[in-house]
Design brief:
Largest sheet: 9 strands, mixed
Radius of gyration: 30 Å
Number of helices: 17
Strand content: 5-15%
Helix content: 40-55%
Order of helices and strands: HHHHHHHHHEEHEEHEEHEHEEEEEHEHHH
Distance between the termini: 89 Å
Length: 509
Amino acid sequence: MQRQIWQIANDVRGAVDGWDFKQYVLGTLFYRFISENFASYIEGGDSEINYAQLDDGVISHEIKDDAVKTKGYFIYPSQLFVTVVANANANERLNTDLAAIFAAIEASASGYPSEPDIKGLFADFDTTSNRLGNTVKDKNTRLAAVLKGVAELDLGVFDDSHIDLFGDAYEFLISNYAANAGKSGGEFFTPQNVSKLIAQLAMHKQTSVNKIYDPACGSGSLLLQAKKHFDAHIIEDGFFGQELNHTTYNLARMNMFLHNINYDKFNIQLGDTLRDPHFGDDKPFDAIVSNPPYSVKWIGSDDPTLINDDRFAPAGVLAPKSKADFAFVLHALSYLSSKGRAAIVCFPGIFYRGGAEQKIRQYLVDNNYVETVISLAPNLFFGTTIAVNILVLGKNKKDTNTQFIDASELFKKETNNNVLLDSHIEQIMAVFDSKENVKHFVKSVPFEEVVAKEYNLSVSTYIEAKGNREVVDIAKLNAELKSTVARIDQLRRDIDAIVAEIEGEELEA
């Protein structure tokens, strides 16, 4: 099915830029999902009801009201994906009809608790855009191709056993677009197995969590790995995140629906986490996962009010204006509950540089918040070859040691990127759990040693790299050198003798 999905995207993109065109394939898949989800809800398992065949006029206000309260939105039979796709090729108003349907779905939530979760969902699925073609006919031809292609995907009968197929298809598309989007790819998607590791670190040994949070959530991949990890456990209040980029924010909200997380179990907000944070007045989070942007600029000390912000004030210093990494770290720490743990992907430079970053490290270590620092292999992420680190913060540590794990050799080399395998995750989680020292791999360092190293938290400072060079026998090497020198001296004498003989012959001649 994955190959089929990717082929659809390539077949219908035409002259449209591949990265921009992702919205049409992703949006169509989302449209199909919410249509089938909604029809399944209305039918309620009654095989005698076929919602798509009902007339819009028979739908009462009470049915609509109840549906929006439960599902968060409403779709009339004439607006369903299956209804639209049946006449797509012959519909000369396809692009404007789709625009009207999407507007109606969003408007159906107006005045209901789900309104902020539904509003603007289709904003990037612009069916009247000239990106689809210069004429209405061109637009409709391309839209019909997308609709037909997505309709042909075998996603099974819509029920609990097939719901994950939609989410898997969506995640596959996002990961492939990320892999082909260059530097921007890493801004909205964290590779699946790295996400899995981060989620397992954040939620290790927690039998239940109140809620899970990602302050720079991208398309929501980290939060969704948390969902997969906690399927057998209890999540009281659901999934929370904030995202700065509007398009990526919409991807994240769609992703929640496509993974069957109802509107009342997620809260994704749009905005700048550092300057305009949401959820600050809520109950702290038991689990935080994050892959924030590396070393981006932020306002920092140019805003004098930030030093008094509850998130940054305890450290007594702000992250440098040119490098916001520790601003994200301190933000996450302030949102963490007393039993919680945060796992954050970080640029390696923040663990050894001086100045404000050293003072923030001192604050973190002195208050015993740093549980583990893990160095990963290079080239695991989209858009960068950097060997990043994962910083694990906790507020309920059992001792004052800081654990360092060198996982830089745990990867499988593939064509474009290195890949973290499940077996590698198991190795990391095993030592993260045991806290036992393993030469060249893991070391738990006492508080006093970290202080003596001036709060340097670089993994290489504490773990000696495994030597990959061949062990040399010095005595044997010296003997071979003497023998080689002797042979060279003899060759020189032989050459001198030959030269002298030639010169003597020339003189006699």
